[in-house]
Amino acid sequence: MRSRRFRDRAGRDRKAGRCSARRDGSDGDGGRVTDPRVTGAARYAIDSELPGMLHARIVRSPYPHARVVRVDASSIPPGTVALVPDDVRELGRYGVQIRDQTVLALDRALHVGDPVAAVAAPTARDAEEAAALVEVDYEELPAVADVLEAVAPGAPLVHDEHVLSSGGAAYFGLRPQPGTNVCHRFRIRHGDVDAGFAEADVVVQDVFRTAGAQHAHMEPHACLASWEGETLHVRTGTQTPFNLREELAQVFGLEQERVRVVAPPMGGSFGAKTFLRAEAIAAALARKAGRPVKLVIPRSEEWLTLNRHPAVIELAIGARADGVLLAKRVACYADTGAYADCGPGVAQKMGFAAPGPYRIPNVAVDAYCVYTNTPPNGAFRGYGQMQSTWASERAMDMLADRLGLDPLELRLRNLLRDGDRYCTGETMHDVHFAECLEAAAEAIGWRDGRRGKGLAVMLKGMQTPSRASVAIEAGTDGGYVLRCATTEMGQGARAALTRLAAELLEVEPARVRFPDPDTGLVPYDTRTTSSRSTYMMGRALAEAVRDLRANGGRRGYGEIANPGGLDPDTGQGVASTHWHQGAAAAEVRVDEETGKVEVVRLHAAIYAGRVVDRASAELQNEGSMIMGLGTALFEEVVLADGAVANANLSDYAVPSFADLPGRLTHELLERDGAEIHGLGETALPPVPPAIGNAAGSLGVRATELPLTPERVLAALEERP
Amino acid sequence: MRVRFELNGEPVEVEARADEVLTETLGRLGFAGVRETCGIGVCGACTVLVDGETASGCLFLAPLAAGRAVTTVEGLGGDDPVQRAFVETHAFQCGYCTPGMVLAARRLLEENLRPSEEEVRLGLAGNLCRCGCYVKIVEAVLLAAGREEQWTS
Fold first, then answer.
1. Do the Cβ atoms of B130 and A26 come within 8 Å?
2. With a cut of 0.95, is the ipTM above it?
3. How much is the pTM?
């Protein structure tokens, strides 16, 4: 087909690549749009360069568990530098909660893909060739890949000991179980669960599973490390500049001020670009080479770098015949892979999310973070929450079915209200679960017939405790500069915080500059995770503007903390100073011949409190829902003999336009004078159970995600 | 080998290996909007137009561009109804896939000036956006399509 030509307003043909301009919609001079993301001018960590820099490549173990007998890099060509275990043996161990990682595997490689050596060469292609010339001899050791096998007595131990981190991300009491693969155990003890079950008329009990997933952030992990004397400079895509600085200081034995982390905008992250990924390898190579080193993780190695925790959740819930919930018992097993990373936090969140947004007088939760000989798992949008919400909300529908109640009515009868105490003992405030759920139900016409329809509602904690601080400096031009560690990964934090600052300072947003976070220039912030930044940093900004006004208008500093935390042995305390709340509703068709689930309608109703930047808020909701759709229907890291079998974007499918539901809609619930509620993740966790429950209404008694055609057909066969 | 082609309307001559793909060549020339992402031609982030047709820059061999016209997002200069519609509808978050998305959308509209929502979805199904901006991208494409004075056959 012949392509159409564009014409300018005078009707002259112009080359493809140019066409007539209308002035509306432009954000620059002469009617041209200037947003760098749409013109190709956006630059990310992957674009970082320094004169004389080398390119790195990692040599990885092909075995799930092996002794590293010999690493020989003597055949690499001149001009190439190799990093071998002996180069890093004296460096510190890292790990933000459990200090279980070394820069390279020293004696044992613990998963397929575990780095055992690295090379740096003048070009990325040279580095790839040189990496292939590094010879490594291994001696295979017994491995464990399944989370339940890993907690069974006699399982091979992935780590011999559990050394606790003293860093800022080890923010709760860690409870590793010595001599086992459990690196953290978290418990909630609330009421008397045995008595509660004894009183129950109906008990539903089942085992739920969720799959590992790959973030598939479009920009891969990329960093550039260089040394100036004894100071390490790192430019990297990271959500956690201060945690990373602390980890690198720990590894290289430096004062934290001798490590400078600069965090350019990320081409997506979703939790993947957190803590220390490949930065220490780049830094160690740079020190050895005496030159800057850039390290970009090849796409296929992203599946070996960090994935989402697969989980097994054993759950029992008991109710009276009228639907009043009496007791719930949950055991969560979070498979953290070969290294803990923030897995203990993930398991803990899985644990305190598992009771769901309900009044339940008797609750017992045991959550375990478990090592296996598989690639490490870490933060992933809505971490711990998605896994628990799947189990908890599927169980609510199974319970409604057993009780002969409408699943909506069962939920409404038990939802937490303002002033209720959660099973952690904290009092709930600004509670809107029922409104979210009713809105979601209404959107899909729940009361007009429930066949093919499903609902889910959830409460999600925000990082507690945490601290945010920000400095505002007045420029000579009447504008202001924000010194702020909040990082941009597409979620719109920069736009939201710039807008908030402009409102507070009573200037146009264009007068507020927000440079890339640089730990040498910005005050401390916990990290850009758990949908906390607009809320926490927004409050710190208000403090900073007050300070600026009170002190001559040149410079202001603001700091906010949200204290709290849970006792890891009883689960009592403050899980979250402020809860994210949301519900989803789905309508599906199930093809009983093929097992394919088609989502015809998907809606989410999310409590926003106050919306700061509407476009970003909507995009975060839509993006979360679409990611939830992938989790629900097809995203799954497939392991075979400990190796990832689908480590590419062809075999590992992420949602495309073609996967969109027939209708995808959402709403933000706002209240005058309410607190800002972060929106980065809330709409993801309720989507899989809403879809699962919709399929459940058609006889698919699914307990395992994703709902692949194979699993759907198997569930249909078990139908009574 | 020397390869001569037209890049965003200007003649260029570059040195390229025989097995080099366009993302590499264009990256060297400073056109970072073309980004290798999946490396196997399934994500669309490296989409360029070659003689007006979409091509995956991660698979298209640079020597095969000889004598042809290559357009990257930089070549649109911010002066394109699709770019404008993307900005107006906020059809991006991190922006990594946006250059490829804009070019694919542009080609789609050249072939079909009045696409339905379904046709836009199918037409762009070869371009992945992990941030999940699909709803607003469809809005953007339909908005650009609606501006008839800018699209003539």
1. no
2. yes
3. 0.95
